[in-house]
Structure formats: structure tokens, C-alpha cells
Write a structure and sequence with these properties.
Keywords: Cell inner membrane, Cell membrane, Membrane, Transmembrane, Transmembrane helix, Transport. With 166 residues, this protein is mainly alpha-helical. It is 71% helix and 0% strand. α3 runs antiparallel to α5.
Amino acid sequence: MAGLLRIIDFFNKCLMILLGVVLGVMSIVIIIQVLSRYIFGFPLPWSEELARYLMSYSIFVGAALALRNQQLIAVEFISERLSFNPRRILKIVINIIGIFLFAILFIQGFEMMDKVSSQLSAAMQISMSIPYASIPIGAILLTINAIAVIIELVLAKEEVKEGEVA
């Protein structure tokens, strides 16, 4: 199981690099759009659409990475009051419930992709299934990282206090 965690963490490092590139490209596209519209008076019709689609992918990749690092927003009122083993069991149950929700997200996202596959985007003239593919891809990434968190929780022997090195 530790080997699987190493593979997932290496994959996440690659995703982190990809996320940085996507956010960089999105920023450059937005800057070019602002310059072309307000300085040169010539708006680029495709730039807003591309930025929107890149944002959609970056949200799902970022959410998957945040899930793996357990940095998603959470209400931990109950879990903070529990000792180590009950807290660990609670987090495992929460991640299993999350996996079921990600499965629903995958199925619904795939159905939406199928429904819009014949439509073309207004400015870029690409199949709308490409932007909508971010939903099932994101669901897969979230599921992989939820599994990694579960494995890590199962392998945890004792609680690591803040500031200590495991």
C-alpha cells in the first residue's frame, strides 16, 4: 500500500506542475485579452472562452490536490474532540462517502459530456465535450486522492502532533 501512495504522490506532483502551467496560460490569455481589448481596441473572441475552460480544469485538479493534502475546508467541531482512533475512523468514513459522491459526479459528468458532444463552442468551435470532460476527469482525480487519504489513515500508527516530523 505504501508503494501505491508513492505512485499517487508522484502523479500528484505531475498534476501540480500541470496546474501551474494551466494557471500560467490562463493568466497570460487574460492579460493578452485585456491588452488587446483596451489598448488596441481589438477584443479576441476566443480568449474568454479558453480562460473559462482552463479555470474549470484547474478547479478540479486543485480540489483533488487539496483533498490529498487534507486542506479542503471542513467543519471539524466533532473530530477535534475525538481521540486518535475514532477520529481516524470518522475521516475514513467521510472519505468513503466522498468516493460515492465522486462516483455520482463521474456518471453525471459523463452523461453531460454525451449530451453536449454534438455542440460546438461559440468562439473556439471545439466540441463542448472537451470543457465538460473536466467533470468526470475531476471525479477520477478526487477518487484517486480520497483512496490515498484512506490508505494513509489506515497505515497511520499514531497521531503526529503539529510541528513533529513523522
